[in-house]
Amino acid sequence: MSSVGLRWVFLEQNLILLPKKAIFWEEEKALIISDLHIGKVGHFRKAGIAIPKLMEQEELATLSDLIHDFKPSQLIFLGDLFHSDMNNDWNWLELWRELYPTIKMILIQGNHDILHEDYYQQANFELHNKLRLGPFLFVHDKKDFEKIPPENVYVLSGHIHPAIRLRGRARQSVLLSCFSFGKTAGILPAFGKFTGKCCLKENEDDTVFGILNDKVILLKASLENH
Q1: Single pTM value for the model
Q2: What are the phi and psi torsion angles at 13 (to 5°)?
Q3: pLDDT one-digit tens code per residue, 123-148
């Protein structure tokens, strides 16, 4: 298996945190991914900004590698699958989807998923605003649930493209994409490369896993999960 990740038992579920910025949930045979932003390259190219066309095809190829390695029965996309308005990159997404007709693909709609729902349904994506499965509630943006946290469920989200900054003794620093798990909600890193990163503010009860090259490493463990 080419995609080696870090195994973690959380809420009595077996998760594999992957350096390709995804989670494989063993009990549900589900790959969980957030913020691909397919179409963002085409969006910028339409505006006259030169971005390599192959970038998004490479990301779909990476996703195909994960499907080959883990053989999931379902993919759960935590929003921002396609970036805003229609462009030619949608054709690549449709062609890629046709390669896996037997895999259920669920899209939790994000703020950038603004195409009419007919496009997604015709491409065989199942649409939800939120989805409860096992101990998890899948959403795009966890802030929608921070004021009134749902009971007896743990929120998993994307949206903010989380990262954590590591500093060295010589004042050098590096910003790493990360998985962050708080007391009531967790955030996945953005799968898409053309997305940017948001440096997280650390809380005492957060458990943070950084992505360093081809490894996932535990950077910070809360007392509860240590």
Answers
A1: 0.87
A2: -115, 145
A3: 999 999 999 999 999 999 988 776 67
